[in-house]
Amino acid sequence: MEFNDRLRQLRAEKGMTQGKLAGKIGISYGTIQAYERGQIPKGDYLLKLAVFFGVSIQWLLTGKGSKRVGEAFEDGEDSDYKKEETDLVRVSLYNAEPSAGGGTHPDLEKIKHFLSFRQDWVKNELRADPKDLVAVNVSGHSMEPTLRDRDTILVNKGVDTIKDNAIYVINVDGLLMVKRLERRIDGSVMIRADNKAVSSDQHVSKEEAEKLIIVGRVVWFARQI
After folding, report:
1. Which fold has domain 88-222?
2. Which fold has domain 3-74?
3. pTM, rounded to two decimals
4. N or C, which end of the chain is more exposed by having fewer CB within 10 Å?
5. Mean per-residue pLDDT for 187-201?
């Protein structure tokens, strides 16, 4: 079994289309197709695929070693997401800045560094699987006062359906945006900004709403003072 076979297997296990996986990783549909034809991803995107599927880079790339990162940690092997000795979990902070405005392109994503959080807090307070979390910085002012320019947000990629008028990171035609989403009874969606002075609400029909790619739900933020 080669890399592309393992990638197809992982995608099938999650029941995801190539397009949906592309949106989650922040790359084009054509790039995912190329990966599944045998092209090897660059380091950043290989890491993102491994983190998203919860597998070790070594296994994904070569088929060797432990498949799951939890197993890798127990065996003492290196892993991309790991439970640290102090009972912390490590979350990747990406260079991508979802826009609280018109949108930014996700292909520029690179990992800046990692943030650490207590594992019990992530599971009990955020009610999230640590491997589903990524961190990014907000760009723009349309979500003020809730989120400000340069705030750091945690995004739960395990939540890809619209609930409770919450704030989400979405991929719209290849652009990352952070907005409040509200699903209507007729299946349409309102994309809302908290700062009406700089951004107006957008109504998305039921048909177009089905094409929205929800990267994940914003579950936490931090701000410098």
Report:
1. Umud Fragment, subunit A (2.10.109)
2. 434 Repressor (Amino-terminal Domain) (1.10.260)
3. 0.60
4. C
5. 90
